[in-house]
Specification:
- By secondary structure, the protein is α/β, with parallel strands linked by helices.
- It has 20 helices and 16 strands.
- It is globular, with a radius of gyration of 25 Å.
- The two termini are 44 Å apart.
- 44% of the residues are buried.
- The structure holds phosphoenolpyruvate and magnesium ion (MG).
């Protein structure tokens, strides 16, 4: 038996073959070739493969979301064979005597630029489709597996570490678990694993060896243990644990449809954190009463180019409409730090967590911000959308955000596009500065939501990405809890509500503390909703105290 010990960051017991994530260098360079006809044949085969993939995607979409959604992939399939596009590829191949990859990339760039330069907004938006189709053909030329996993059966995905942009592009249906050498429990990849309800262990270090590829592993996302060839006793223990988990899940089903209220009548909104419209199913299955945090940046991370206003609108609308009148808080773009998006061309920074990230990027790039705000306000006509700004440190930032919102509402009014003018506006409390000026911020907005992941990082000066900080990264630290209390007092004094959307919100051991502070909302990963509800319903808010705030 081989035991690898890491850190459990997403609960659950699972077993399956280990598959090592393969990073393929997808940069395209021009090469001279002797046999142009052979390159043409490579392009033809990559086109055929792309069309077959798009047909499968269109069919899946038709089954799950109807004809309208399937049209996108059908259009992409048609474009793969578009006469002018193919002619452009062949001309480059012949004129330059170059490799297929370079010819396809050149054609893609030329066509995307041509569409982007058109007057009609609809045609402009097609530039992103062309880039997408071109990327698909290139991936097939370079042997990059779709969804990142070249396996017919689901696997435990092993890697040195995974960036959030890599994780969002994976085919989730093929992943039984994540096992990584590096990483930390507060990284966005761990957060994504929890949102998807997939067991994950990080920090396995050198114990996780490439030579284990293909071997059957057993992993426990709670204890952080990964086994190869477990002995009988260990295997039996894991099986029992798995069965108990399933039993517990069944028992928790009883909580569905029940109110999130303590024995003495204190109501707490239990909402969910999501990263994409696909997570909506998990929210509905777990009876989440709203969305407390839609991390909109994952739309940007999953894309090869800036998502257009229409693409964003469709995603926000799907969630707003799918929640059927329940509150859906969408956070504006929060990239930077560990969430890097190539096409933003952000400068490399010494301290990215304290650099140009989140709202700072939006305020510096008004066009990017405006596109997102337009999509958000348009979606507000289809449900109870609320807009939330991340990484706020100053009142002037909020005022500037509100001015951008007002400008967008004016535009939409003039264009006759429906939206909800009373859309709630909130800010995230995730910097010590925002805690200190919380009284002033509260006068500007409708709600606060505390991002405890960043608040812990900035309050304790502890990098949330670093797995070696151990006990120094302590979200239970009295300084963090006192910051939460200060923000809650400031909110309530000014008549607005406050919630927690950081990972700490799901920490059952802190529920009495949150109740004593008067937290109005807790937004957690979908699978944490029912356990939290069960605990709230056993609690008596009046007897809860703030003992943990003492040193
Ligand atoms: C947080 O910082 O707690 C938060 C919810 O935002 P993110 O984890 O996406 O930075
Ligand atoms: Mg944050």
């Amino acid at each position: 038996m081989i035991l690898m010990q890491g850190k459990g960051v997403s609960r659950g017991v699972t077993t399956g073959k280990l598959y090592f994530f393969k990073r393929v260098d997808t940069t395209v360079e021009q090469r001279s070739v002797d046999d142009v006809e052979a390159e043409k044949e490579r392009v033809r085969q990559a086109q055929e493969k792309s069309i077959a993939q798009l047909e499968v995607l269109a069919e899946k979409c038709r089954r799950e979301a109807g004809d309208e959604a399937a049209v996108l992939f059908e259009t992409h399939a048609m474009f793969v064979e578009d006469e002018d596009y193919v002619e452009c590829i062949n001309t480059t191949l012949e004129d330059e005597g170059c490799n297929a990859e370079f010819a396809v990339q050149t054609a893609g760039e030329q066509f995307a630029a041509m569409f982007a330069a058109m007057d009609d907004a609809y045609m402009q938006a097609r530039a992103a489709d062309i880039t997408d189709v071109t990327r698909r053909i290139l991936n097939n030329l370079m042997g990059v597996a779709e969804g990142g996993i070249d396996s017919d059966e689901p696997v435990i995905l092993a890697a040195d570490d995974l960036a959030p942009s890599e994780t969002v592009q994976l085919d989730k249906s093929k992943i039984l678990g994540f096992a990584t050498q590096g990483g930390s429990g507060n990284s966005h990849t761990a957060i994504l694993a929890r949102t998807m309800g997939i067991p994950a262990v990080c920090g396995l270090g050198d114990a996780l060896k490439n030579e284990y590829e293909g071997r059957v592993a057993y992993m426990d996302g709670e204890t952080g243990q990964v086994f190869l060839d477990p002995d009988e006793l260990t295997a039996a223990g894991l099986k029992t644990k798995y069965e108990k988990q399933q039993e517990m899940k069944m028992l928790l089903q009883e909580m569905k449809g029940k109110e999130d209220v303590t024995l003495d009548g204190k109501h707490v909104n239990v909402y969910c954190n999501i990263g994409s419209p696909e997570d909506l199913n998990a929210v509905l299955q777990n009876d989440g009463q709203g969305i407390g945090l839609f991390r909109s940046e994952f739309l940007y991370l999953a894309s090869n180019d800036y998502p257009t206003e229409d693409q964003q609108f469709e995603a926000y609308k799907a969630v707003a409409a799918g929640m059927n009148g329940k509150r859906v808080i969408i956070r504006t773009l929060d990239i930077g730090a560990d969430k890097q998006v190539d096409y933003f061309d952000l400068k490399k920074e010494e301290n990215p967590a304290m650099g140009l990230r989140a709202i700072r990027i939006c305020l510096n790039r008004p066009e990017v911000f405006r596109t997102q705000l337009r999509a958000l306000y348009r979606a507000s006509a289809f449900g109870k959308v609320a807009i939330m700004f991340p990484m706020i440190t100053s009142v002037w930032e909020v005022k500037e955000c509100k001015r951008a919102c007002a400008a967008v509402m004016k535009e939409l009014t003039e264009e006759g596009i429906p939206f909800n003018p009373d859309t709630e506006i909130g800010v995230m409390i995730e910097t010590p500065a925002s805690v200190f000026v919380a009284e002033d911020l509260a006068k500007e907005v409708d709600f606060f939501s505390v991002g405890t992941n960043d608040l812990t990082q900035y309050t304790l000066a502890c990098d949330r990405q670093c797995n070696d900080l151990g006990k120094f990264f302590d979200p239970h630290h009295p300084a963090v809890l006192r910051a939460l209390k200060m923000a809650a007092d400031a909110a309530h004094k000014n008549g607005i509500w406050i919630g927690i959307c950081g990972e700490l919100g799901a920490d059952i051991s802190l529920l009495p503390t949150f109740l004593a502070m008067g937290m109005d909302e807790l937004s957690v990963t979908p699978s944490a909703v029912l356990p939290l509800r069960a605990e709230i319903r056993k609690s008596i808010a009046q007897t809860c105290d703030l003992k943990l705030l003492e040193c």
